[in-house]
Amino acid sequence: MAVLGLTDGRYLYPMEFIIKVSDFAFSWSTKSSFCLAIDDWQVKYGQKVFLYGPSGSGKSTLLNLLSGVISGYAGQLSVLEQDLQSLSGSKRDRFRAQHIGMIFQQFNLLPYLSGWQNIQLGQYFSGRVNQQNQDLLAHLCDKLQLSEALLKQNAASMSVGQQQRIAVARALINQPQLIIADEPTSALDTELRDKFIELLLASASTSTVIFVSHDKSLASHFDVQYDLLALQGANRR
Fold first, then answer.
1. How far apart are CA 19 and CA 22, in angstroms?
2. Where are the domains of the chain?
3. Over the stretch 77-91, which tens digit does the pLDDT of each residue have?
4. CATH class for domain 47-73+94-231?
5. Is the pTM for the entire model greater than 0.70?
6. CA-CA distance, 48 to 211, in Å (whole number)?
7. Is 121 helix (H, G, I), strand (E, B) or coil?
8. Rounded mean pLDDT of 100-121?
């Protein structure tokens, strides 16, 4: 599928695969016993993907590689047809800010900033502060049930559920093509966990989502599921 670039580096039409991995291997050092090796893996544009595996299987390492936080791998790994390893550190940071929304297990909100200021950080690092779309922001806050009063509160005074919704808004504010969520429901009970996943997927309806967890019971929410250990054996789950 053809891809047309926009002046701000985004894409007008999506390619078939947003992620391509082949003949891939990563190890922290030559002395490390850990090695993440994937022969072949593709993720289609717009898919909602559930990736699971036990602790130590390399889930967070893979997410850090996909987002360009770490590099130094062998083989091919491309996101939006961009080989992240070919970019300098600063260019990888800008690529991540413009094209990838990150949701972390601990949310990584700045506690002394308001909800609105935490959301704005996503725009600041992408270089799009002056391109703010008020209609998009209003729609996003409405869907995530973020009131004006809540947005003015410091993150430290918010409940866990409120902080999660702020983290989702920050991840979505630049309309990224890819959302990466690393164990964001691990501290929630079953009811809140399911509601959060449903809210995330509804809010990120036009984005590809990679959601990582060790809890296989969450898989039914997603289009496709991969066992990372089996994936390293090139077996689709």
1. 10
2. 47-73+94-231
3. 999 999 988 989 888
4. alpha beta
5. yes
6. 8
7. helix
8. 87
